[in-house]
Each structure stands twice: as structure tokens, then as C-alpha cells.
Amino acid sequence: MDRDLGTIGPCDFGGRLHTAMTAHPKTDPDTGELHFYGYSPVPPYLTYHRLSAVGELVVSRRVRVPKPTLMHDAAITAHHVVWLDLPLTFSLRRMLTGFPFGWEESYGARLGVMRHDDPMATVRWFEIDPCYVFHVGTAHEDETGKIVLDGARYAAADMAAAWSGRRRRAASGAAGAEGPDGVPRLVDPRARLRRRQALRTRSRARAIRGGIGGSGSSVVAPLVRRSARPAAASVVGSSSSP
Q: Is the pTM of the predicted complex or chain greater than 0.85?
């Protein structure tokens, strides 16, 4: 679009972008690079992209995941991209009868950690309890090198309530749905996880209603990859470390 918000047309970065583009790209506040991705119901299911500070598409690579999922957001830190491979999967059968994504408990849930200074870096996967995250608040690497990820986590009951039109009731904890929680997740990129293992919870949070769990929320740019609490206008409550 132009400076007056008039439509100019689609941008494919000189014909180099061949996938969809997320609505939640991340700008690195130090380098000016833009990290983003596209997900698809057909292979490749997930593709990572990086723009240079001058807007040139310099990296595009496939990230292997078992199935197409609704990967609505991701996170970056100083050295890593964090992928959210969660059990809201795509189904052609669902698409023929309504919304194509649905909860698939057997798919499991995991966080993927990938260095973004190496275009072909291996993605290391860390399994977590099944949940869904619409939006990430912020993510950073602590003094020991562990990645701390903040976001609003939904359980299966919360998602069922949201899709059935009772989103406000789910967010407020009514009718058996507890709504999202805002528990930070800790991931050690150096760990060697080969089996299912729950990530250690660092702190508990009070209720988060809407905000980073709902649609339309955002985090101010300077907080991307920083050590900071989530900053969204409709977040209620906060968490503190012991």
C-alpha cells in the first residue's frame, strides 16, 4: 500500500516468495531483519523466510512437520526462532463441512528451536503437554542460555468453547472452561530430549482475558526477543518469578 493506505498490489519480493505469509512477522530490533513464515494445507506445510534490513528476501527454507497445523504465531530470540507445532490440525473432511482446523489430541504438542544465523540449521523439538497458543507475548534467552517463552496457553476445553461461539465465557472461566493461562515455558537449546518431557514451569500467572490469547493483540516492537513481560493492551494480571 502507499502512504495514503491506498492499495498498490501484492508484494512477492521480486517473485521470490512462493508461500503464504504470516500476519505476525517479527522484526529483530538490533539487525532490522524480518523473520516470518508461511504454513499450508499441502506440502511444504511450513516454510521459514527472512528479509534483510533493506527488504530483500535472503532466506527461504522448509521446516519439516508431520501434518499441516494452524500455526498462528512464532517467536524469535537473539539467536533462535521458536516454532509452535500444536494440535490444531488441518483436515479436508472438516473443510467440506465447516472450519478445516480442529483439535487432534494424538498429534501432541512441541516447541521447535532453530538458530536463525544458520539458514539450514537443524530444528530441535521439545515435547510439551497438548495445548494451543494463538499469540506469543515475548521470548528471550536468559543468562544461562535457556529460552523463556511467554504466551497465553489454551487447553482442549477452551478451544472447544471458543469455536462453539462461547469465547467470552471460555476466557472468563465460565461453563467449565478455565480460559488461557500465561505460564512461561523454559527451553534449553543445548538439551538432548528424545522422549516426551514436560517443560519446567517457572511461574504461575493470574487470569489473562483476551490480550495475547485473543485476536488483534500485539506486542510493541522493542519487546521482541527481549527479557520483558508481555505487553498487550487487554492483558489483565501478571506473573512473577519465585
A: no
CA dihedral of residues 217, 71, 46, 113 (deg, nearest 10): 90
Taking only Cα atoms into account, the Rg of the chain, rounded to an integer number of angstroms, comes to: 18
Look up cell 537473539; give the residue.
Answer: 78
- How far is 24 from 208, CA to CA, in rounded Å? 20
Q: What number of H helices and E strands is found in the chain? A: 3, 13
Could you read off the pLDDT of 121-149 as tens digits, one per residue? 999 999 999 999 998 888 889 888 888 88
pLDDT digits (tens, 9 = 90+) for 198-226: 343 333 222 222 233 333 333 333 345 55
The string of DSSP codes covering 78-97 is SSEEEEEE-SEEE-HHHHHH
Closest listed residue to residue 136, CA positions, set 187, 80, 211: 211
